[in-house]
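Bumping my old thread because nobody answered last time. Still need a sequence for this structure:
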């Protein structure tokens, strides 16, 4: 493959399955015969759904899929009875809970550990500019330390984003802060703070999960991950 991961930010998929608390989807068996919302066909949310079904031994075609995007408005479709559940990002689920919505959140990460968010580049770039990439990773880690070190650090960063960039979500600073905090909670840590380490075991289980649902077959997951840049930090 032309791309290679040089750092891993989270040891979590970043997705959950949401449903009504009064009619919860608690596991893969509960998905059978349900109408599920996904962000887009062939998206990571559909892969997450398929991994959950496969891990639970539930046929893929037993779930009806609907493309509904990724906003808290998806929960309205569930409340209206037009969907039974939906694959949502963790920030969306956190925003719903903060708003007091009657939502049930099921996290399937334990069934199939995944590496989550990662930083990728080309193999040629690693070979030619490892020191420059290491400097980038040092800056990213320093930023993560600032953001996760205190509530004031995150609040200040959200305010800067809202003022300087055209990020639609940042218009509602309170909601954006909740979503940012939930994203940062997923960041892996070690004794030095935010970690960028590549958990090869998670990469192996993630690649195996994709193979089982028919997405791709990567004979050696180590071939798409490298610690070359991390070693320069």
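Sorry it took so long. Here it is:
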């Amino acid at each position: 493959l032309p791309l290679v991961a040089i750092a891993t930010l989270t040891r979590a998929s970043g997705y959950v399955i949401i449903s009504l608390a009064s009619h919860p989807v608690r596991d893969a068996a509960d998905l059978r015969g349900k109408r599920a919302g996904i962000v887009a066909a062939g998206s990571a949310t559909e892969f997450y759904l398929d991994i959950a079904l496969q891990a639970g031994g539930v046929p893929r075609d037993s779930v009806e899929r609907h493309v509904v995007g990724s906003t808290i408005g998806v929960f309205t479709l569930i409340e209206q009875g037009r969907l039974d559940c939906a694959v949502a990002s963790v920030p969306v689920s956190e925003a719903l809970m903060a708003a007091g919505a009657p939502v049930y959140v099921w996290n399937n990460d334990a069934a199939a550990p995944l590496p989550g968010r990662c930083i990728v580049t080309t193999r040629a770039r690693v070979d030619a500019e490892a020191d420059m990439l290491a400097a980038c990773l040092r800056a990213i880690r320093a930023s993560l330390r600032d953001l996760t070190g205190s509530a004031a650090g995150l609040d200040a960063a959200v305010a800067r984003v809202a003022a300087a960039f055209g990020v639609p979500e940042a218009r509602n600073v309170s909601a954006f802060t909740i979503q940012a905090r939930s994203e940062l909670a997923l960041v892996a840590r070690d004794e030095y703070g935010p970690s960028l380490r590549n958990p090869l075991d998670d990469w192996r289980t993630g690649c195996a999960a994709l193979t089982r649902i028919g997405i791709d077959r990567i004979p050696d997951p180590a071939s798409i991950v490298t610690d070359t840049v991390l070693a320069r930090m």
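The first strand starts at residue 3 and ends at 8. Let me know if any region looks off to you.
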